[in-house]
Amino acid sequence: MAKEELKIGEISKPRFEFRTFGQNFDNAAMRMARLSAPVPEKV
């Protein structure tokens, strides 16, 4: 995947980053799955 070059004044694309620390994520995974909805193509 080639890195896209940004020009001065250009708006970057949004991104999401999740970091987790722990041993068991079952409850969090179930909650995120329940609350998640498909992201529409045109946001």
Overview of the molecule:
The protein is mainly alpha-helical. The chain contains 1 helix and no strands. The relative contact order is 0.09. The model has no long low-confidence stretch (mean pLDDT 79).
Low-confidence runs of at least 5 consecutive residues: none
Rg: 16 Å
Helix content: 10-25%
- Kindly report how far apart the N and C termini lie: 24 Å
Shape: elongated
Q: Structural class, from secondary structure content?
A: mainly alpha
Counting H and I runs of at least 4 residues, what is the number of helices? 1
Fold blueprint:
Layout: H1 26-35
What are the defining features of this structure?
43 residues, mainly alpha, 23% helix
Quick synopsis:
By secondary structure, the protein is an all-alpha fold. 23% of the residues lie in helices and 0% in strands. The chain is elongated.
